[in-house]
Amino acid sequence: MTKFIFCADDFTGASDTLATLARSGLSARLYLNAPSSSVSENDPGHGSKSLDAFGVATSLRALGVEDGVATISPLAENIKSPDCNLYHFKVCSTFDSSPNTGNIAAIADRYALAVGANWKAIIGGQPSLKRFCLLGNLFAGAGNGKIHRIDRHPVMAEHPVTPMDEADLRCHLSKQGWANIGLIDFTMIRKGRAALVAEIRRRIADGETETLFDVAEETDLLTIGEALREITTDMPVLCVGASSVAQAIFPSFATPQKTRVRRRDGPVFAFAGSRSSLTAEQVAHAKNYVKHSVRPTDLLSPKAAADLRAECLSVLQSGQNLLVSLSDDRDHDIASHDLAHASAEFISTISNDVALGFLLIAGGDTSSLAVQKLGIDSLSFAADFDAGAPIICAHSTRTKLDHLPMLLKGGQMGKPALFDNIAALPVSASSS
Q1: What pLDDT score was predicted for residue 264?
Q2: Are 22 and 29 in contact (CB under 8 A)?
Q3: Exposed, middle or buried by CB within 10 Å (0-12, 13-18, 19+), for 253?
Q4: How many Cβ atoms are within 10 Å of 107's Cβ, its own excluded?
């Protein structure tokens, strides 16, 4: 029986949720489209009914309101299950969104309507990624380890598409359509499960439809999870938040296993579409790649893009690792979504034309669109690698892509040496 169903607004966080569920001992799979309840010929043993949990990854965080609602409507209808009361709308741990782009409230409302959830639980933090919610205000760690209020964060406050100019998540989400969000702060949570369940039931009886939960430390998540599991014994609930939702509901108390991570025989292809300072540091740190810095305008020029593809294929076909990064050239009028689409098309073409050993994509929107274009059916968890950036495995009817190990990371995730750490992975004996 399926215990947990999630829909993710991008692929980087979706892979982290997939990893969280797998760590907790659940059989889980991430799909690119709503899965069939039966076992697929191309996905043996992993029809959705045979899984403990499954999710669908999308590019919702990059879409406008009308497109977002139009995308979630049929998807939510298709994934709902009469046997499941726990649904999750996975959003970025920094909640970066706006009334016009990646509107969390509008999409969650339609999701909740489809699955029959009259109450939504908003989980405000993810301590494992240095995301904390205190008295409704969101704080996040930066690449240097310092914690900032989100509206003063050196990257997220200046996000090129959805800058976070408000730290109070109630105020932030009210601009997107939720005018009466309640808050259960950390003092209430620390009264324990029984008191928290009673408080939630009281609020639901009073007509509260959206409730934000503080998360200041891991124990807060454990208490919230205990309460939500009890609440969902007799009613469906839509949880909104990052991978911390899965951490709360399915905590793992086991010591993480040291998996011997390997890649396939073949070169590593890495694409850095994120403009974050941490990704820039990771690119600068990488020593085991042929590097190409690409101007955004080149990806939208048919001739320049064709020349670049030929040059990149030549490098990869020679067996060398390749790292392509977008230059910090801001002197253009290309919309961010158009640039992400062009980047995704470029990544897809390269990945389908050469047998790669590993694919690494940095950038949430770029990852989401690229994986959708690749021709992959589903993804499974392969191994932990870096905080918020697990290694996943592709499943596809396309030979070059089937069982391709991948890492999809947001701009703020990973250690400075992440690219070189991937290049240093040993090659699987079965692929050499």
Answers
A1: 87
A2: no
A3: exposed
A4: 29
C-alpha triplet 365, 381, 132: angle, nearest 5°:
60
Give the integer Cα–Cα distance in Å for 282 and 389: 14
Rounded Cα distance, 133 and 126, in Å: 8
Task: Decide the pairing of beta strands 389-395 and 378-386.
Answer: antiparallel
In the block, which residue shows the tokens 């079965």? 430
Q: Tell me the β-bridge partners of 30.
A: 55, 379
For residue range 300-354, list pLDDT tens digits in order: 888 988 999 999 999 999 999 999 988 876 555 676 778 878 888 888 899 988 9
CB 123 within 8 A of CB 111: no
Percent of the chain with pLDDT over 90: 54
**36 pLDDT band (50/70/90 cuts)?**
low
Distance CA 323, CA 291 (A): 5
Three-class SS string for the chain?
Answer: CCCEEEEECCHHHHHHHHHHHHHCCCCEEEECCCCCCCCECCECCCCHHHCCEEEEECCHHHCEHHHHHHHHHHHHHHHCCCCCCEEEEECCCCCCCCCCECCHHHHHHHHHHHHCCCCEEEECCEHHHCEEEECCEEEEECCCCCEEEHHHCCCHHHCCCCCCCCCEHHHHHHCCCCCCCEEECHHHHCCCHHHHHHHHHHHHHCCCCEEEECECCHHHHHHHHHHHHHHCCCCCEEEEECCHHHHHHCCCCCCCCCCCCCECCCCEEEEECCCCHHHHHHHHHCCCCEEEEECHHHHCCHHHHHHHHHHHHHHHHCCCCEEEEECCCCCCCCCHHHHHHHHHHHHHHHHHHCCCCEEEEECHHHHHHHHHHHCCCEEEEEEEEECCEEEEEEECCCCCCCCCEEEEECCCCCCCCHHHHHHCCCECHHHC
Higher pLDDT, 374 or 187: 187
Tokens of 334: 């290309």
Q: How far apart are CA 281 and CA 411, in angstroms?
A: 11
